[in-house]
Amino acid sequence: MYERFPEPSDHEALHKGMPQTGRQLLADVSLPAAVIHEPALAHNLAWMQAFCEAQGARLAPHGKTTLCPELFRRQLDAGAWGITLATAPQCRAAFQHGVRRLLMANQLVGQANMAIAAELIEAGADFYCVVDSVENVDQLARYFSARGLRLQVLIELGMPGGRCGCRDTDEVMALAERIDSEQALVLAGLEGYEGVVHGDDPERSVRAYAWQLVEVAQGLERDALFEHPAPLLTASGSAWYDLIAGVFREARLGQQFVPVLRPGCYVVHDHGIYRQAQREVLARQPALQRGLKPALEVFAQVLSLPEPGLAIVGMGKRDIAHDQLPEPLRRYREGDERARPLSVEGWRVTKLMDQHAFVRLPAGDEAMGGGRVRVGDIVAFGASHPCLTFDKWRRLCLVDARLEVMEVMHTCF
User: Fold this and answer.
1) 290: phi > 0 → left, psi -120 to 50 → alpha, else beta; which?
2) Which of 215, 245, 276 is the C-terminal boundary of a domain?
3) Closest Cα partner for 127 from 146, 145, 150?
4) Measured between alpha carbons, how far is 328 from 149 in angstroms, rounded to an integer?
5) Residue 215 sits in a domain of what CATH number?
6) How confident is the model at residue 200 (pLDDT cuts 50, 70, 90)?
7) Is 116 helix (H, G, I), strand (E, B) or coil?
8) Quick check: 147 and 141 in contact, CB under 8 A?
9) How far is the first Cα of the chain from the last one, in angstroms, to the nearest whole number?
């Protein structure tokens, strides 16, 4: 469901301050820089695709995580069914870079956004969006009828106190009947998002919500309200995908529906909330092997050692997510062709400003295995929540195990 992506020229990459491929990250790249490690990336792509296939589900990774065409291409090459996006402009950007099946897991509201969707459909996109109100259905029906187009929609089932979505089964059924009366709209499935489930026993609540999705979808099927020949049943973010997949498998959805999972952060994983979520997945699913690997880091240099026990590093809120403070992972000497990692044991980020990180060092600012820290040393940092790191960068370095730049990747934020 995609076409070949245009390749950026090395001249453009150099003009924008990024290196040509084949250059060394520790010597030739202006820092700070966002870095993706190819071995971990390749592992994650294969791992999640294999997981979904073993569950009998399709994978439509949420592209808002990276909004990176080169990563979309890799996800589709690995077997993804399509790409999920959050907004009409994101869908347009993905389509312009070759993605043909677009699942917009959000309401399509506003004529300017409807115009984008209409243009995508006219250009050949297999486009889906979400609805949860009669008012939105009426707006969409008027607009797409006037354009002479049919729009594929999924009803969103939400939950009290949650985000968007119909609040109960009766609302869903009434909305489905309204869609059925509109020639311009095609009811193509049911959509949900379990990431807003909370409570004392979230695992139980997520499973209950997944079963509610199944039961509502089956009710729509019994009443012949799906017009699409292969209706979708889709949910799953990056934390509870195993529970959603398990319920969909138990319900044997593949006989009636196309089950679609939508995790996005798996592609590079992280060193924070999703690392913890993955530990919980593996605890729930002991048969799974190895799990995901963090692939995204930000490399930055020590700018100043202004007082004992303190390093100021040239990286801040404009460079890395800060839901949680970044985690120092490794240190290198600038220009080290062998890329030998030095210890950062005892290092701790205590504060972030726009473009500076305050890092507390062990007593005497010594670091095991590498000697005293120096101005110019390069530090690799891990972050929590990859979405909020990607959107700070227009270009990222894909590097091999020797920290040699293999590719310059681009984002479309």
Assistant:
1) left
2) 276
3) 150
4) 52
5) 3.20.20.10
6) confident
7) helix
8) no
9) 22
